[in-house]
Design brief:
α3 (about 65-85) links the parallel β3 and β4. This protein has a four-stranded mixed beta sheet with strand order 1-2-4-3, sandwiched between helices. α3 (about 65-85) packs across α4. It is globular. By secondary structure, it is α+β, with helices and mostly antiparallel strands. It has helices at about 1-10, 25-30, 65-85, 105-125; strands at about 35, 40-45, 55-60, 90-95.
């Protein structure tokens, strides 16, 4: 497992092990996780005992049609993939897109994601 984590981090990939997949994980985060919010995203975070940060993304139908929802998920995964090194510890992150995130340009989406992730990293380093 250690080697897989090193390879994943060095190649900056987003593998299946980097994702939150179980419904129970999402529910646990929403109940006991620390909440961060801005205009476009809500994030619930909690420290995990694994050797990696994991990301789960939720974009409901209220946000938009499938193409818009998929675009938001793709941008969130890409931002996480490129910037996960800002976390010194390992976290589970549940990212929820709000309706306002639907029609914003990529640049604003990345700025909003940066805002959330920097706040999480600042909280984590305390």
């Amino acid at each position: 497992m250690g080697r897989e984590t090193q390879v994943s981090a060095s190649r900056k990939t987003f593998s299946k092990g980097d994702r939150l997949l179980q419904r129970s994980d999402f529910i646990r985060l929403s109940k006991v996780g620390k909440r961060f919010k801005n205009r476009h995203f809500i994030a619930y975070v909690r420290r995990n005992n694994l050797n990696r940060c994991r990301l789960g993304i939720t974009v409901t139908r209220k946000v938009g049609k499938a193409t818009k929802r998929n675009r938001i998920k793709r941008l969130a995964r890409e931002y996480f993939r490129q910037n996960r090194q800002i976390f010194r510890e390992y976290w589970d992150i549940h990212l929820i897109a709000t309706k306002e995130s639907c029609d914003i340009p990529n640049k604003i989406t990345f700025a909003s994601l940066e805002n959330i992730f920097v706040r999480i990293a600042t909280y984590a380093s305390r």
